[in-house]
Amino acid sequence: MRRLYTVLLYLALPLVLLFLLFRSLREPGYRARWRERFGVFAPPPRHGGIAVHAASLGEVNAASALIDALAKRDTGGPLTVTTFTPTGSARVHALCADAVFHVYAPLDLPGAVQRFLDRVRPRLLVVMETELWPNLYHAAATRGIPILLANARISQRSFTRYRKMYRLTAQALGDTARILAQSAADAERLRALGAPPQRLTVTGNLKFDVALPPGLPAEGVAIRAAWGAHRPVLVAGSTHEREEAVLLRAFQGVLAALPDALLVLVPRHPERFARAAQGARAAGLNVALHSAGAACPADTQCFVVDAMGELLRYYAAADIAFVGGSLEPIGGHNVLEPAALARPVLVGPYTANVGEIADQLIDAGAARRVADGAALRTTVIELFGAAGERDRMGAAARELVASGQGALARTLDEIERLLTAVTG
What is the mean predicted confidence (pLDDT) over 267-288? Predict the structure, then answer.
């Protein structure tokens, strides 16, 4: 099955490259560093360390505490972090600066994978969440490099897709040394896809171990002071284009009831910053941009954060946080960041990517689900007028995050065991 997969991948390679070129029309970063995608790059100064693969922005954020902990430890070599997307790459540079060696992950072609491993020569490969690359896994296992699948999750939609390729998926999972699942449901799906039960452990979700930068609450207070401490502020984080239209219509209704309210719009992808601002202006809102300074005029109705890595600062300045990717069928983004900051959380109906966590927040009274723009408008107006309810929801959110922590320590323990086994 792996050989057939490889043949099909080579046949599809022109389409893959065209897809990357097409993506580069909106995100120019896809046009850069193509040699790295074929395993061609200057190697790190030393070998024998750990390689962590976090495909995109979401995985990098989920792995941030783990990467930080590994960068501070002596693991016998450099820490290499690979990503696939330019936004993930930019986030690695913002989080780690020169503390890690960063390249794009190779395409899952045998030659590209072999060149990558020849240059990095890791003692351990850590793959975040659900990135199953049969040729990479096979090549690493053949070289005796253990593979740790960390923070592993399988949504029902992904499970259905992987089931159609059971033999190939089972081969890839069989090449892993350890699989650390986020939940019992994820572990059960992984077992059904062929994961060896003796290598599978439930360790929890690394996203609960949110590493909040020191002084973040104080930054939020300072931002609010610049805006007006008593203005009602809704921060909509990691938003996508179609749901922004819904958000903007809903916020027009909020403004009709509360004329001094402020919407802080933080688009998910940088190539959309200008279009998001244009959409807000087209909706009749007065717009200010983060790039012009954190302060905004008193008549600003929509503040567009046109920069990467700023979302936490603005969540810290929010009265209410709406988490994007959930008003359209994308599956939702990280709900634990605003929860860790004790902010009441709102999500739309589509939360498959964060389903269990979103349900836990809702059950704890820390979050609410809104079915559409009308429900969003009604809920925001209600919560803006109920400071006590916002405080209660925020406290419940922070308590739930604290109760779920510990996955980081368990993951680090597994890494230590695998490294010891390799060196022993």
Answer: 95
In this predicted structure, what is the pLDDT of residue 213? 84
Q: Write the CB contacts of 264 (distance below 8 Å, at least 6 apart in sequence).
A: 233, 234, 235, 236, 302, 303, 305, 314, 317, 318
Residue 295 has pLDDT above 80, yes or no: no
What are the chain's domains? 2-209+405-423 (3.40.50.11720), 216-403 (3.40.50.2000)
Would residue 36 show up in a list of annotated catalytic residues for this protein?
no
Asked whether the beta carbons of 377 and 254 are under 8 A apart, the reply is yes
> Which ranges constitute the DSSP H helices of 143-183?
156-163, 166-174
Nearest by Cα to 381 from 338, 346, 334, 341: 346
Taking the C-alpha atoms of residue 67 and residue 411, their distance in angstroms, rounded to an integer, is: 11
User: HEC profile for 236-300?
Assistant: EEEECHHHHHHHHHHHHHHHHHCCCCEEEEEECCHHHHHHHHHHHHHCCCCEEEHHHCCCCCCCC
- How does DSSP classify residue 31? G
Measure CA 145 to chain center. Answer: 26
Identity of the residue numbered 63: A
Catalytic residue among 36, 59, 337, 414: 59
Determine the average pLDDT of the residues in 125-148.
95
Neighbouring C-beta atoms of residue 399, cutoff 10 Å: 14
Helix residue spans in 303-354 (DSSP H): 311-315, 336-340
Tens of pLDDT, residue by residue over 329-385, are: 999 999 999 999 999 999 999 998 888 899 999 999 999 999 999 999 999 999 999
Based on its alpha-carbon atoms, the radius of gyration of the chain, rounded to whole angstroms, reads: 22
Sheet strands side by side (includes 178-181): 101-104, 79-83, 50-53, 124-128, 147-152, 178-181, 200-202
pLDDT tens sequence across 205-262: 998 997 788 899 999 999 999 998 899 999 999 999 999 999 999 999 999 999 999 9
Strand order across the 320-323 sheet: 287-289, 302-304, 262-267, 233-239, 320-323, 345-347, 367-369
pLDDT value at 97 more than 80: no
Cα 97 to Cα 52: distance, rounded to the nearest angstrom: 16
pTM summary value: 0.81
Question: What is the chain's length?
Answer: 424
